[in-house]
Structure formats: structure tokens, C-alpha cells
Amino acid sequence: MPEESKFNILIVDDNDASRYAKGRTLRQAGFEVKEAASGDEALRLAETERPRMALLDVNLPDMNGFEVCRHIKSNPSTSSILVLQMSASFTRDTDRARGLEGGADSYLTEPVEPEVLVATVKALLRLREAEEAVRISARHWHMTFDAISEGIALLDLQGRVLRCNQALT
């Protein structure tokens, strides 16, 4: 995994003390951090800064974090941003399910120990790196498969064509 300092993290929380504590924890762990105090500011920074991850409080002054998450995930230019939703007031299982169903990649209830926050952020970033590596590998495989001059088809166990290269079409 690349060094953590290459990952921008956007912390979205209207509580100054909470935002400061999370930012300090993540900066000490080597992350580059940007901060926002509202949903509108978060959406603007997500669009302009393109962070790798957003730590998103659910309870915001202008819109709730569930709505901010939906906006991030539905916008093609920001949909790849990981969203870790966090809340001290929305702590029921139904709240966590709502966050995850709304597009969040993970959900933590506060208070959360600094070590758990850092470990969760690192785990999500490792998963994203693995997904990107698989995507790149698949793209290379498809390019190689299609570049073969002989016609080739991949069949399932019933003999149905799953994929064929360009030489066969």
C-alpha cells in the first residue's frame, strides 16, 4: 500500500472539538487532512479536492450526513471517495444500516478510540487499493485477450460462450 501521507482525508463535522480531535489523530498517523463544518462545504471540497476518504458526521447543520453521502456517491466525479460515516447520536443498528445502505463504506459510532479510527481508515484504504489493483489487472487481461490474433472463446460448463475475443467476432 502507498504511504498514508499520499491519501487526503476530508473530515466533516460541525463540532469544532470533535473535528480537531479526529484531524489531530489522523495527522499524527501521517495522513493529509482537510476539514469541513457543513454538508455544503463537504460537497464543495469533495468536488475540488477529490479526497480518498471522507469521515462524515451524520448530524450536520445544513443537511444530514446520509444526504451528503448520497450526493458524493451519486456524482460520477466523486463516487470513488470512500465514506466512513460517524455519529454520536445516530447509534442504533437501524442508523448504521441506513448509512451503509445509503452508500457509506463503513460506519462507526462515537466515541471511538483513536487507534480504532486509524485502523479503520487504513483498512478501508487497503481494501480500495486492492480493488483498484484487481480492476487494473482485469483491464490488462481483457486487452491481452482481445489482442490475440487467433479466435478464442471462453465457455461455461454447459458450453455457453462467456466471452470471445475480437478475432472470433
Notable characteristics:
single chain, 169 residues, alpha/beta, Rossmann fold, 5-stranded parallel beta sheet, two-stranded antiparallel sheet, 5 helices, 7 strands, 19% strand, disordered N terminus
Notes on the structure:
With 169 residues, the protein is an alpha/beta fold. The protein has one domain (4-133): Rossmann fold (3-Layer(aba) Sandwich). The protein has 5 helices and 7 strands; from the N terminus they run E-H-E-H-E-H-E-H-E-H-E-E. The protein has helices at 16-28, 39-49, 65-74, 93-101, 114-147; strands spanning 8-12, 32-36, 53-57, 82-87, 106-109, 153-155, 161-164. The strands form 2 sheets. It has a 5-stranded parallel β-sheet, sandwiched between helices. Strand 4, helix 4 and strand 5 (106-109) form a beta-alpha-beta unit. The radius of gyration is 20 Å and the shape is elongated. The chain starts with 7 loop residues before the first strand and ends in a 5-residue tail after the last strand. Residues 1-5 have low confidence and may be disordered.
